[in-house]
UniProtKB/TrEMBL annotation, chain A:
Swiss-Prot/TrEMBL GO biological process terms: endoplasmic reticulum to Golgi vesicle-mediated transport; Golgi vesicle docking; intracellular protein transport; methylation; vesicle fusion with Golgi apparatus
Entry's Gene Ontology molecular function annotations: protein-arginine omega-N asymmetric methyltransferase activity
CC annotations in GO: endoplasmic reticulum; ER to Golgi transport vesicle membrane; Golgi membrane; Golgi stack
Protein's UniProt name: Vesicle-mediated ER to Golgi transport protein
Compartmental location: Golgi apparatus
Gene3D superfamilies (UniProt xref): Leucine-rich Repeat Variant
Main location: Golgi
Keywords: Coiled coil, Golgi apparatus, Methyltransferase, Transferase
Presence of keyword Metal-binding: no
Coiled-coil residue windows: 803-979
Gene label: USO1
Region (Disordered): 1-20, 729-749, 980-1014
UniProtKB/TrEMBL annotation, chain B:
SUPFAM superfamilies: P-loop containing nucleoside triphosphate hydrolases (SSF52540)
Stored CDD domains: Rab2
Predominant place of localization: membrane
Polar residues bias spans: 193-210
Source superkingdom: Eukaryota
InterPro entries: P-loop_NTPase, Rab_GTPases_membrane_traffic, Small_GTP-bd, Small_GTPase
Lineage: Eukaryota, Fungi, Fungi incertae sedis, Zoopagomycota, Kickxellomycotina
Any one GO molecular function term: GTP binding
Protein name (Swiss-Prot/TrEMBL): Ras- protein Rab-2-B
Amino acid sequence: MDFFKRYGAIGGSQPQSPTETIQRMADRADTSTLLEDKRAAVLGLKGLSREYKKDVGEVALDTLLKVLKEDSEDHNLLKAILETLNNLCARDSPGDASSEAGATLADPVADKFSQAILHDSDDVISIFLGLLGDADFYVRYYTVQLLSALHMCAGEELQQRVLVSPTGVGRLVDLLSDQRDIIRNEGIQLLIAMTRSNADIQKIVAFENAFDYLLGIVDEEGGVRGNIIVQDCLQLLHNLLNYNVSNQNFFRETSGIQRLPSLLVTDPSQTAAGRSGHPMPDADEDLEWTSQHALNMLVVLDIIRMLIQPGNTNTQSNQTAMQQCGIIPPLLQLALAYEAPPTVRSQALYAIGDVIRAHQANQSLFQRILITTAVEDDSNTSSQRAIPEPAIVIVIRLAVGKHPTTVSANEYYIVRAAATHLVQAYVGGNADAQLALAATLTPPGDIGTITEPEQHQSAGSLIVSVLLDWREASKEDVWRVWYAALLLSTILRDHSECKEQALKITLGDASKGEEPFPLINEIMSQARQATQHGADVRVSIAMLTLISVWLVNFPKGVSVFLDESANISFIVEQISGSTGINALVQGVAAFMLGLVYQFDIDPESPMSRESLYPIISKRVGADQLLIRVQRLRDSKEFQYAVGLAAGTYSSAYGGAPAEVYFDGVFTDLFKLHYESFRAAVRLGPNEVMANPSYAYLHGGMAGYAGSAASGSTPGTPRLGATTISRAASPSGGAAGGIHDSAPVNRTPAEPTVAKSEFDALHAKFVEQESQIAELKHTLETSAAQAQPTLDLAKPVNDDSAHLEQERQLRVQAEAERDEQADEIARLRTQLGDAQKQLIASQENCQSTSDAGDVARIAELEQQLSALKLEGSQHEANWQSQRDELQKKLANAEKQVVKAAAAGRNTNKKKEQQQATELVTLENDVKAKDEQIAKLTAQVNELSEKAKQLELVDELKERLAGLEKEQEDLLVYLADQEQQAKDNRAKLRGYGEAIPPSDDEGEDDDDEDDEDDNE
Amino acid sequence: MSSYAYLFKYIIIGDTGVGKSCLLLQFTDNRFLPSHDLTIGVEFGARMVNVDNKDIKLQIWDTAGQESFRSITRSYYRGAVGALLVYDITRRDTFDHLATWLADARKHSNANTTIMLIGNKCDLEAKRSVSREEGEEFASKNGLYFIETSAKTATNVEEAFVQTAKDIYEKIQMGVFDLSGESGGVKLGPSQPGISSMPNMSQANGYSCC
């Protein structure tokens, strides 16, 4: 109250009420001409602003803002105003320690004043943003604080105001490089708040180089081993990238991903602080994982995973970038860090899974990683000789091995879930990896080896041994068995080869006189024992669901399964029992019985569908079976697993252990087969095959892994659209993507023509026709090739105005090409005619064995050979023209080079471009040369063949006059055709099989031709 | 594409619908989309170019042309060293607005920012309503580079970006830019031995980029 007396004294009147004093001081601040008076008044208001927040604000806010705008040069005044405004706008934080730390109460008074400031007509916010650049520490500091307070009360409005200022966000980002840590840290806090949801601000912050600043600060502060500032920086980085594709691209383009691996390094000597010799705050406990350390690391891992979310456009390129910058080794190190918290280890495993998921290159790289590691089991500290093992084995050991004694089974659960996720990411769409893992499935040397060190077992035998020794394994941690079953499901899932591989595994040493017992039945037997001995129900469920995954689409497995009579009786027992039987086990058993019935189609099945049918229809009853399965489907345990699999399985840390009974592999299978299951169990033993859903069984059972790869089946030559050099394969034809100059009209599947008594003649025709087809095709291909060559010249021209001359040349060349095309078209017509003639004659021949016809045919043959020869000549002619054209092109190239050199000395870039284009052109021409050589060879071959024909000499004589005769020939041909038609009709009358059209005849020949080539 | 000598930041500005995003897409992806969605706020793209045998990384921010985004896009002027000011040769209004755009750019950007005036859609000669000469005149009057492009046929698109980079590069050679400054829109690449604008990048230097 001292205060009031003092200020009251100034007025010389009686002690006043606070309101009066505030009013008086506000007036004075407003009207005083002397700076000292103003300052004193503002300081007075400041002093009252905490206790009489409401009064000060209501009375003096406008005045304070006015003074701020008018007298912002005076730092003391400025500081006092800012501090007062801070007091007015800050939400009261609860004073007592009992309430939640850091929480602020809703504060209508502060909100009101904040709104008033934000809606100030003179845009006072831009003044604040300007003050962020003020050199004075307190001015800057109070301004940041004030903006933070305003953001707390009215975040969105403040964001809009900041965005309006062209330099606003830039000034906020500048705070990150403030040398004074207090201001910098306040700035980070403010930016975290402002970037939480505003994509525009996120982008501008990134544009202002925030990535560099933030990663720099993290490094300075000791990397992930640093303090809470590191966490804040990482959090801000996270905000900038989350849901913001543009920023994610920018992050990758600024080599941000390349800097991520260094963030995973936990060795303090490798960070900036460590390097510069600063003693770390926790230098003594070097490798201790503090909670701060873990929090920092979790944000880094979250950022990594955010960049490679499945299905995003950038995921593939980010995965590649991450792998290339070596992110996997430090992640693996984290995953295997015995002392790290399970959350960190789990997230590291998930991150590795995300890096390799659906990314073939990364998957195969992961396959090759070898790790040398100490035994994780801390009871086994004795020095063991460390042998490098594949990373996948170590990951599987994480999933099914013992949990560290310092961590409880349920805490360690998330590590198992993550390791399994990684294995699934590794085999997903990677049939080879799946098979490789299946190949390591071997029976454990002796049951009970699980107590032995788990070191140096193969991936598969590790899984099998845990599964079979479930009693020991589940003693303290049932999840070992559960995840072992899930991993085996993952390995077998939808991959018939893997299922087959696993089916071959037998237990029992034949040399000791033991009967070999298939693994599948051994697991069933263990499931039976687990169920009967009242083990954790998860053991039975895990084993039975595994067997279901195994048997589906796998009749051979069903046979082996049925070979052991105890299996079916156990299942039936479970389904029909009413008391003391777990409803979930019952449901799975019912589903299994349905599957067994559905897929009991192996001819060697020891128990046919006929003998199974009565069990389903009478003993159990189809209704009963369906009800059991429905109950399973509707159970909350099953629904939980469905939800878990549908959502991001990974981000949920594998779910809450208490809720988890089923895995995603089984729920997927269930969803896929539920409908067919319902239909199948109602069908009689011989009806099932009619169900369309079995069609795929006959089509092959490669499974999803196989079908995923079917797009690029190895060994299938692919005719790329740009493949030019396939003149030798007529079937490629004009259908290729080069230039569709004359698409041939063909029918893909031709009816088979019955071989008749005309075989000999026919064979001859075929031979000749195929030759014609070949020639024709050669011409087509060449024509098509001529096109791209010329097109190639185009870009060279386009960008240069200096190359007019060259352009003319091109026009000329094009004209020549057109000429050639005409020539080719003409040749083609001739060939087509000849073909028609041939076919007509063929038909003639088939309809009658009249000798006169044969003679006529012989004549036709001769004409045909003549035509063919003419074709070769044209071919040769055309070739020479092509040579000429090439020369001209080469000339043009030279001119381009010259022109480019002369006119474009400065424009080196363009020159280079042209040069490369010229090189391409040259290469092309070379390729053309080769092709022409090939063509020549072919033409030679053809003429050889032609020579072998009879009466070649005579034909040569007639060659000169042939072109004139062509027209006559056509008339004659029409005749022939008419005749042929008649004959055909006649023949059809006799019920002969006659090819209905010309085209088909041609197709037939193409087919033959292809065969010849092959 | 691992290392680069310099990094330049560009912005693309101009009225809505003149083809800014298409220019960027043609430049970065060699693609053209006849119907491009309206840009919301700002989108990012990047590509490497070569000037004087030096690899230069261009980071390009493609801004929304709509008036409602104007205040947001202004935030990008300050940090850019190159600005592509685009109009549509078939729409005179987009040309008429150039003065406003230029004033805005001059006001908010760095004095040394290179501005390239681009008359886009030059493939639509039949619909042309702004002559080439007019564009040239506006450019020379305001000291801008000028080029007519077509994002559709890719005509001059490369040139527009590269020519801008060349000018900036020459300015660097003349010492116009202070490379140690953080907000200039020019940075030395991480591969530069000795000097680095990113003081804490030393660890990242060893890694090859994506």
